[in-house]
Amino acid sequence: MALRWNYVDVICSKCTTESKIRIDQFNRKNKIWTCRSCARTDLKPNIKHRCAKHDPQKLGAWKSYWRAKKRVDKNHKNCYGHVKFLFNSFEEFWEELGARPEGFSLDRINVSGNYEKGNVRWANVKEQNRNKRTNIFVTYGGQKMCLYDACNISGRDPGAIKRRIDTGCPQEFLFQEGRWDSKRRLFYPKKQ
């Protein structure tokens, strides 16, 4: 036969949150109760020498540092065989980049280069997507840019422009209105 416990209504001694606890636990705590969130704020970590892992300001940079180091050391997805991690310590990494801004992550400026001074930065998702080896770069309006950016400016469909590139269309006809004949290798401008 199971025992039934008597419960008592209690109020947190710090934040006045109401709850119910078993009467035997309430008596054991000298009839003073604190809720879990208040009890957690009272706990202080027992850290004598605060390293970057335990410093809230440096935590984001610390995680990015170790992720990049681990990716290179383990040759993640066989994509990092040529890449070296040339930072000797986290302090050197911290001097180069500083704190990680919210919504940013570690990025190499030259995607074929190493993780080293002058070749790393904090970048958002859009900047990182523009900085990939798989991106196609085209010249539009006299400027070299990512295919997707050129399509946004010109108002053309990125899939159609990619098909033109894949079938050998010359650069000067990529963004013009008309039809590219890949068999005859001719461009037919749109009639007005």
The succession of helices and strands, N to C, reads EEHHHHEEHEEHHEE
The profile of the biggest β sheet is: 2 strands, antiparallel
Helical coverage, percent range:
25-40%
Distance between the termini: 92 Å
Count the helices. How many? 7
Please state the oligomeric state of the protein chains shown.
single chain
Radius of gyration: 30 Å
In the sheet with the most strands, the strands line up as 1-2
* DSSP E strands, number: 8
Mean pLDDT reading? 86
Low-confidence stretches: none
* Beta-strand residue fraction: 15-25%
Structural class: alpha+beta
Which term fits the overall shape?
Answer: elongated
Provide the number of structural domains. 3
Q: Quick gist of this model?
A:
The chain has 192 residues and is α+β, with helices and mostly antiparallel strands. The protein has 7 helices and 8 strands. The model has no long low-confidence stretch (mean pLDDT 86).
What does this 3D model show about the protein?
The radius of gyration is 30 Å and the shape is elongated. It has helices at 23-28, 36-42, 59-74, 90-97, 125-130, 147-154, 158-166, and strands at residues 7-11, 18-22, 105-108, 120-123, 137-140, 143-146, 178-181, 186-189. The protein has a two-stranded antiparallel ribbon. It has a two-stranded antiparallel ribbon with strand order 3-4. A two-stranded antiparallel ribbon has the order 5-6. It has 7 helices and 8 strands; from the N terminus they run ββααααββαββααββ. It has 3 domains: 7-42, no CATH class; 52-130, no CATH class; 137-189, no CATH class. It has 192 residues and is α+β, with helices and mostly antiparallel strands. Strand 5 and strand 6 form a beta hairpin. The termini are far apart.
